[in-house]
Amino acid sequence: MLDKTLPYYNIIMKRTSGTIVPSARLPEGYTFKLYSDGDETHWADIMVSVGEFDSYKEALEYFQKEYLPHKDELKRRSLFIETDDGKKIGTLTNWWNYTQSRRDPSVHWVGVKPEYQGLGLGKAIVYEGMRRMIDLEGDRDYYLHTQTWSYKAITIYIKAGYNFVENETFGTYANDYDKALETIKDKLVNII
């Protein structure tokens, strides 16, 4: 879950090419699945459950506008964690953003339903997502945008090889490095 008691600041992180990606291991009873038609409803449900969107309708409309026009890419880039009984409970999307004319591969919208957090699923989907991103894009620099509210996920991103960038950004994201780091430094004591 997001910690919305903190001030919101944008954080830009970058994984440089050549960084080792840890192995992704899901606990027994869970598997990785790629997007298939209709999974946008599961994506919206997951994103609302973690507080990224205020309503299911808002999340679904976002997905339909941003991702569904690229359905073939979705089927290669949108990853889910599924329980043995077929319930989708986590997601990550390997996508891209344009920084002027430069196309930057980036991780979008990572989330695991709250009742499944603490089982290592977030870590597993981030690691597996990175492995798949390398398969799709080659071993190059990757970006992600996150925020102070997601400080718990930041520890996973750091373990996956991402680092804070101080003066850089991608796409149209702001980079509030100084304010963000000041806000979360006590929460990341053993990490940074």
UniProtKB/TrEMBL annotation:
Annotated N-acetyltransferase domain residues: 30-184
Pfam families linked to this entry: Acetyltransf_1 (PF00583)
Superkingdom of origin organism: Bacteria
GO molecular function list: acyltransferase activity, transferring groups other than amino-acyl groups
InterPro entries: Acyl_CoA_acyltransferase, GNAT_dom
Protein name, per record: GNAT family N-acetyltransferase
